[in-house]
C-alpha cells in the first residue's frame, strides 16, 4: 500500500485553477519528485498536503487515514514534516533550539509541567537536547549549535531546517525546493543528504527546479503544468516523454 | 410601553459619551418614556443618521491613513476633538466661519507635524510598534488638551438659531444643526471621492496605496503622500468636530469613544473602503439610536463594541468586502 | 543556575528595601510598595503574552477588574436578610461554613462569603471569560487584535460602571481582610503593613518563578517559535492557537489574582481600575521593559508604578505614560534595558 495517496485534489484562487484534479501516490521508502515550470502549482500542492491551505475538493490519505482538512500541526503529528522554499527558521533562537522545536510532537510536557518544573519535564528536556544534538551531528553542523540560526550561511540554514524537520521523526518528509539558492557543490551535498535520509527509512517527496538533482536521486517523478498532471513515471521514462520534453525541458534538451 | 428612570450616574455617562441630548427628547422629569410613535420613530432615525454620518467621517479618516500606510491611527478621534476645541477658542476672537476654517488648518498642520516627527523617519516599523506609538500620541494629545482647555464641556454656538429652534421634517422636531452636520459630512464625502478620482494628487495617493514601490519608481514621493494623508484625515476630522460640536459638545476626552465607533464602522464597511464606511456608519448610528429603548443608557457603548467584536470574529473583511480580497492582505 | 542567582537577588532586594524603610523611618513607603508588587503581578503576566507569545492585549485591566470586583462584591454583599428570609441556597452555603459572620461599624450583623470562596469563584470566572474571549480574539492579528482587546476592556469598564452590585461610579468599599492562614491577613491594617508587604512580594516571587520555569520549558520554546514564525511553528506540530489561548488565560489569572488581593489590601476597588488607561499603562511598562524580558518588565513596573502611586508625576500621570510609550517605541523598541542602546550610547560618548 502506498504511504501517501492524493486523489483528485483541486484548489483554485479566484478564477485560477492552481491545482486541478491531481492524483498520484507515494510508495514507502521511495524518493518522489514533483517538477514543473514556474506557476505549475507545485508549492500549492505542497501546501495542500501539509495543511497550510485547505483544498477545494479531493482527498489526501496518509497511512490509510484521510488527513485533508486537518490543521498543519495535526498533520505534523501524523508523521509528515516539511521544509520551506524560503527557509523559515525561528529568529532569535539558536540552531540547537530550532531543532529542539522539531522534537515538540514527540514530547508532552505541557503548561503545568513547565510552570512547576516537574522532574519528568526535566528528564524530557534533557532527552530533547541529546536527540537534537545528534541530528546536528548527523548533518555536520554541530559546531554551530549555539549560534543564532538566522545568522548562519544560507547552506547551513538549510541544513538546520533539515535537522528540524528530521527531529519530528517523520514517516514522510516534504522538501520544498531544497536546492534553491545553493551552488553546485552545496546541491551535490543536499543530494547526498536526501539519499542518506531515505536510507534511514524516511519517505521523501520533493519539489525541485534543479533537473540534475531530481534525475539523480528520485525513484519516480510527477510532472505538473498549469495545475494539471502531465506525467507520473520513472526518471528515465520522463526524460523521454515527448510531452514533458516539449512543455518543460524544451525541444533541444532531449 | 416601557418606563424606566435614568440611572443615578447618568451625569457621569454624559461626560464620557456624546449622547444626542438635543436630538432626541427627554422629559424634564428625569424619566424617559419610550413609546414608539411615528414621531419618535423619525426622531430616532434622524439621531441615528446624524451620529452615523459622524462615525462615517471618523472611519474615512482611518481609511485614508490606512490606505497610504497600512497603519490604523489610534489618534484619529483626537483630531475631531482638536478641531472642535480650536474652533471654540478661536470663536472668542473672530466670527464663526473664519474660526472653523482656522481650526481646520491648525489641526491639519498638527496632523502633518505628527507624521513628520513620529512616523516619517521610521524604517518599516512593525504593526505592534505603530499601534503603540499612535496610542501614545492619542494619550499625549488628550492630556495636552486637558491641561490647555480643562475638563469642562464646551461647545460652539448653533450655526443657525439656538438650542430651542427646530425644524419639522417627517413629523420629527429636529435642530437645524442636524442638517448642518448631515450636509457638511455629505459634502466632505462627495468632495473626497471627486478628489481621489479626478485630481492628480488624489490619483497619486491612490497609486501609493495600491503599490507603494511602483508609485515611488514612477516618481511619486510616497513619503509626502503619507504626510498629506495625515493632513487630509486630520482636516476632515477637525471639520466634523466643528459641525457636531453644538449638539454633541466637545470635551478633552471625547476622541476615544469616537475612535472606537469610527473603527467599528471602518471594519464594518471593510478597512480602506470609504464609500462602504458611509453605509456602515449610518447602519451603526441607526442601530444605536433605536437600541436606546431596549438597552439601558449606560450600556450604549457596549452595543457598538459588541458589534465590533462580532464583526471581527465573523467577517473581519467587513459587511461589503469579499473574503477572497481580504485573504490577500495581511491583517 | 542563572535563575537561582536572579531569584536570590530578587528576594534579597525585597528584604533590603523593607529593612531600609524601617531604618530610615520611611515605613509609609511600604503601602505603595505593596500595591506596586500586586501591579507587578499583572505586568509579568502581560509580559508572557506580549513578549513571549507575541500577542498584544489592551484589555488586561478588565481581568484585574473581574478578579477584584467579583471577590469584592461577594465579600461585601450582606446576606443576613437573605438568610433570615429563609433563602435555601444561602442556608445551604451557610451550613457548609462558607460564610463569615461579623459586625459592621454600627454593630449590626453582617454575613458575607468567605474570601477564599470568593477568590476561587473570581479566578474561576476569570478563566471562563478569558477562554470565551480568547478563542475568537486570538484568531485576530495586528490592529484587529488590539482593537478587539481594547473593546473587551471597555465593555468590562462599562459593566462595572453601570451595575448596582458593583457600586457604579463609586466602586465597592469596606472589603474585609483576607485571612490566608490563621494570623496571616491581607488587609490595609497599619500594624500589618510589613507583613502585608512580604505577602505581596511573596506572590511576585512565586509568580516570577512560575513564569521563568514556563519560559525555559518546552512550552516556552514553542511560544518563542510562534512569536518568530507562526506558520513554521504550526508545521512543526505546535498547536499555535491553543498555546496562545493558554498563555492568554494564564496571564488573565495573574491579573485576576492581583485584582483580588489588591482589593482586599486596599479595602475597596473603583471603576478606574478597569479603565483603558490602566490597560495601556500595563502595555507601556511591558514595552519599556523590553517585551520579551521578564526582569526588565518587573524592574520598570516596580519603578514606574511606585513613582506613579507616590504621586511623583502629579497631574501629568497619564501624559507621562503616553510620552514614555512614544519615546520608547521610537528610539528603543527593544526596551530601555536592552544592551545595544547602552553600548551605542557609550560609543557616542567615548
Structural notes for this entry:
The complex is a heterotrimer of chains A (254), B (331) and C (350). Chain A has 254 residues and is of the alpha/beta class. Chain A has helices at 42-50, 72-78, 95-102, 111-116, 119-138, 154-167, 184-199, 211-217, 235-240, 242-249, and strands at 4-13, 16-26, 31-35, 57-62, 65-66, 80-82, 172-176, 203-207, 220-225, 228-233. In chain A, a hairpin with a 2-residue loop joins strand 1 and strand 2 (16-26). The longest helix of chain A is centred in the middle third of the chain and has 20 residues, at 119-138. Chain B is globular and about 60 Å long. In chain B, a hairpin with a 2-residue loop joins strand 3 and strand 4. Chain B has a single domain (2-328), classed as ABC transporter involved in vitamin B12 uptake, BtuC. With 331 residues, chain B is mainly alpha-helical. Chain C has one domain (2-349). In chain C, strand 1 (99-103) and strand 2 (109-113) form a beta hairpin.
- The count of helical stretches of chain A stands at 10
| Poorly predicted segments of chain A | none
Mean pLDDT of chain C: 88
**Strand content bin of chain C:** 5-15%
As for the CATH topology of the largest domain in chain A, it is: Rossmann fold
User: Tell me about the biggest sheet of chain C?
Assistant: 2 strands, antiparallel
| Sheet with most strands: strand arrangement of chain A | 6-7-8-3-9-10
The share of residues in helices of chain C is 55-70%
Q: Number of helix segments of chain C? A: 15
Biggest beta sheet attributes of chain A: 6 strands, mixed
Q: What are the secondary-structure elements of chain A, in order, as H or E?
A: EEEHEEHEHHHHEHEHEEHH
Q: What portion of residues of chain A belong to β-strands?
A: 15-25%
Structural class of chain C: mainly alpha
Assembly state here? heterotrimer
Question: How many separate domains make up the residues of chain A?
Answer: 2
**Would you list the SSEs of chain C in sequence order as H and E?**
HHHHHEEHHEEEHHHHEHHHH
Task: Identify the overall geometry of chain A.
Answer: globular
Query: Could you tell me the number of beta strands of chain C?
Result: 6
Amino acid at each position: 500500500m502506498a504511504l501517501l495517496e492524493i486523489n483528485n485534489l483541486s484548489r483554485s484562487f479566484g478564477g485560477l485553477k492552481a491545482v486541478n484534479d491531481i492524483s498520484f501516490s507515494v510508495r514507502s521508502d521511495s524518493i518522489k519528485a514533483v517538477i514543473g515550470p514556474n506557476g505549475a502549482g507545485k508549492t500549492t500542492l505542497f501546501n495542500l498536503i501539509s495543511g497550510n491551505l485547505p483544498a477545494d475538493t479531493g482527498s489526501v490519505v496518509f497511512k490509510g487515514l484521510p488527513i485533508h482538512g486537518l490543521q498543519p500541526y495535526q498533520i505534523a503529528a501524523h508523521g509528515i514534516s516539511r521544509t520551506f522554499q524560503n527557509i523559515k527558521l525561528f529568529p532569535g533562537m539558536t540552531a540547537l533550539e530550532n531543532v529542539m522545536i522539531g522534537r515538540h510532537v514527540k514530547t508532552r510536557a505541557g503548561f503545568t509541567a513547565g510552570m512547576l518544573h516537574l522532574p519528568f519535564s526535566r528528564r524530557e528536556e534533557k532527552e530533547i537536547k541529546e536527540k537534537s544534538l545528534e541530528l546536528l551531528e548527523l548533518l555536520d553542523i554541530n559546531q554551530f549549535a549555539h549560534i543564532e540560526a538566522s545568522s548562519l550561511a544560507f547552506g547551513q540554514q538549510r541544513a538546520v531546517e533539515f535537522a528540524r524537520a528530521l527531529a519530528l521523526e517523520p514517516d514522510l518528509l516534504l522538501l520544498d525546493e531544497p536546492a534553491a539558492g545553493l551552488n553546485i557543490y552545496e546541491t551535490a551535498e543536499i543530494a547526498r543528504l536526501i539519499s542518506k535520509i531515505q536510507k534511514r527509512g524516511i519517505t521523501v517527496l520533493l519539489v525541485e527546479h534543479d533537473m540534475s538533482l531530481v534525475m539523480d536521486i528520485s525513484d519516480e517523478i510527477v510532472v505538473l503544468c498549469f495545475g494539471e498532471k502531465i506525467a507520473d513515471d520513472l526518471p528515465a521514462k520522463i526524460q523521454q516523454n515527448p510531452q514533458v520534453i516539449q512543455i518543460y525541458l524544451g525541444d533541444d534538451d532531449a | 410601553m416601557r418606563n424606566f428612570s435614568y440611572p443615578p450616574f447618568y451625569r457621569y455617562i454624559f461626560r464620557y459619551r456624546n449622547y444626542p441630548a438635543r436630538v432626541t427628547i427627554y422629559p424634564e422629569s428625569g424619566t424617559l418614556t419610550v413609546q414608539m410613535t411615528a414621531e419618535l420613530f423619525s426622531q430616532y432615525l434622524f439621531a441615528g443618521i446624524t451620529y452615523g454620518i459622524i462615525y462615517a467621517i471618523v472611519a474615512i479618516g482611518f481609511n485614508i491613513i490606512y490606505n497610504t500606510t497600512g497603519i490604523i491611527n489610534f489618534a484619529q478621534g483626537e483630531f475631531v476633538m482638536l478641531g472642535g476645541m480650536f474652533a471654540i477658542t478661536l470663536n472668542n476672537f473672530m466670527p464663526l466661519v473664519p474660526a472653523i476654517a482656522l481650526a481646520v488648518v491648525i489641526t491639519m498642520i498638527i496632523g502633518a507635524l505628527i507624521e513628520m516627527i513620529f512616523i516619517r523617519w521610521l524604517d518599516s516599523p512593525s504593526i505592534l510598534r505603530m499601534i503603540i506609538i499612535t496610542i501614545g500620541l492619542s494619550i499625549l494629545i488628550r492630556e495636552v488638551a486637558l491641561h490647555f482647555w480643562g475638563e469642562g464641556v464646551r461647545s460652539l454656538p448653533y450655526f443657525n438659531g439656538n438650542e430651542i429652534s427646530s425644524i419639522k421634517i417627517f413629523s420629527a422636531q429636529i435642530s437645524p444643526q442636524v442638517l448642518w452636520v448631515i450636509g457638511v459630512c455629505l459634502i466632505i464625502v462627495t468632495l473626497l471621492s471627486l478628489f481621489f478620482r479626478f485630481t492628480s494628487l488624489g490619483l497619486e495617493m491612490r497609486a501609493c496605496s495600491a503599490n507603494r514601490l511602483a508609485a515611488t519608481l514612477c516618481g511619486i514621493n510616497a513619503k509626502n503622500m503619507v504626510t498629506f494623508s495625515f493632513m487630509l484625515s486630520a482636516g476632515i476630522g477637525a471639520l466634523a468636530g466643528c459641525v457636531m460640536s453644538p449638539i454633541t459638545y466637545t470635551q478633552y476626552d471625547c476622541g476615544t469613544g469616537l475612535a472606537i465607533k469610527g473603527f467599528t464602522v471602518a471594519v464594518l464597511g471593510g478597512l480602506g473602503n470609504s464609500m462602504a464606511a458611509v453605509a456602515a456608519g449610518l447602519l451603526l448610528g441607526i442601530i444605536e439610536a433605536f437600541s436606546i429603548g431596549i438597552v439601558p443608557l449606560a450600556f450604549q457603548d457596549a452595543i457598538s463594541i459588541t458589534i465590533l467584536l462580532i464583526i471581527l470574529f465573523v467577517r473581519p473583511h467587513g459587511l461589503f468586502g469579499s473574503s477572497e480580497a481580504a485573504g490577500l492582505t495581511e491583517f | 543556575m542563572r535563575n537561582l542567582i536572579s531569584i536570590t537577588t530578587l528576594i534579597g532586594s525585597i528584604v533590603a528595601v523593607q529593612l531600609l524603610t524601617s531604618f530610615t523611618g520611611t515605613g509609609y513607603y511600604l503601602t505603595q510598595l505593596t500595591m506596586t508588587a500586586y501591579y507587578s503581578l499583572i505586568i509579568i503576566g502581560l509580559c508572557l503574552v506580549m513578549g513571549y507569545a507575541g500577542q498584544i492585549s489592551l484589555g488586561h485591566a478588565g481581568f484585574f477588574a473581574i478578579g477584584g470586583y467579583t471577590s469584592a462584591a461577594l465579600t461585601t454583599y450582606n446576606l443576613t436578610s437573605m438568610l433570615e428570609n429563609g433563602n435555601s441556597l444561602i442556608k445551604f452555603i451557610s451550613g457548609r461554613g462558607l460564610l463569615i459572620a461579623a459586625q459592621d461599624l454600627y454593630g449590626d450583623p453582617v454575613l458575607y462569603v468567605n474570601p477564599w470562596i470568593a477568590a476561587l469563584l473570581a479566578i474561576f470566572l476569570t478563566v471562563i471569560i478569558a477562554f470565551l474571549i480568547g478563542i475568537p480574539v486570538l484568531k485576530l492579528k495586528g490592529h484587529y487584535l488590539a482593537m478587539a482587546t481594547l473593546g473587551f476592556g471597555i465593555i468590562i469598564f462599562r459593566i462595572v460602571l453601570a451595575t448596582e452590585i458593583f457600586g457604579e461610579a463609586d466602586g465597592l468599599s469596606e472589603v474585609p481582610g483576607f485571612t490566608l492562614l490563621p494570623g496571616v491577613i491581607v488587609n490595609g491594617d497599619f500594624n500589618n503593613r510589613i507583613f502585608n508587604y512580604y505577602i505581596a512580594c511573596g506572590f511576585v516571587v512565586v509568580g516570577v518563578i512560575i513564569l521563568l520555569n514556563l519560559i525555559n520549558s518546552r512550552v516556552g520554546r514553542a511560544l518563542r517559535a510562534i512569536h518568530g514564525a507562526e506558520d513554521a511553528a504550526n508545521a512543526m506540530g505546535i498547536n499555535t492557537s491553543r498555546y496562545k489561548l493558554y498563555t492568554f488565560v494564564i496571564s488573565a489569572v495573574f491579573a485576576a489574582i492581583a485584582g483580588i488581593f489588591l482589593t482586599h489590601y486596599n479595602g475597596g476597588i473603583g471603576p478606574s481600575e478597569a479603565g483603558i488607561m490602566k490597560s495601556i499603562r500595563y502595555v507601556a511598562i511591558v514595552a519599556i521593559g523590553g517585551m520579551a524580558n521578564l526582569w526588565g518588565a518587573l524592574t520598570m513596573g516596580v519603578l514606574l508604578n511606585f513613582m506613579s502611586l507616590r504621586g511623583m508625576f502629579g497631574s501629568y500621570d497619564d501624559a507621562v505614560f503616553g510620552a514614555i510609550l512614544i519615546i520608547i517605541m521610537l528610539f528603543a523598541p527593544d526596551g530601555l534595558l536592552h544592551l545595544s542602546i547602552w553600548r551605542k550610547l557609550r560609543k557616542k560618548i567615548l
